[in-house]
Amino acid sequence: MHELIRLARTIRCDSANPVKAFRHRLRIGVIVAALIFLVSTFG
């Protein structure tokens, strides 16, 4: 659990610019979706 919290802190975006924050969230979402897809396909 501590590893997940540490990972969440490292990928957190503290930008005040809403466009940057949205792009960051979109990028992270695509990466997570790709990982879920790969694990479900090959796992």
TrEMBL record:
<feature type="transmembrane region" description="Helical">
    <location>
        <begin position="26"/>
        <end position="42"/>
    </location>
</feature>
<keyword id="KW-1133">Transmembrane helix</keyword>
<keyword id="KW-0812">Transmembrane</keyword>
<keyword id="KW-0472">Membrane</keyword>
<protein>
    <submittedName>
        <fullName>Uncharacterized protein</fullName>
    </submittedName>
</protein>
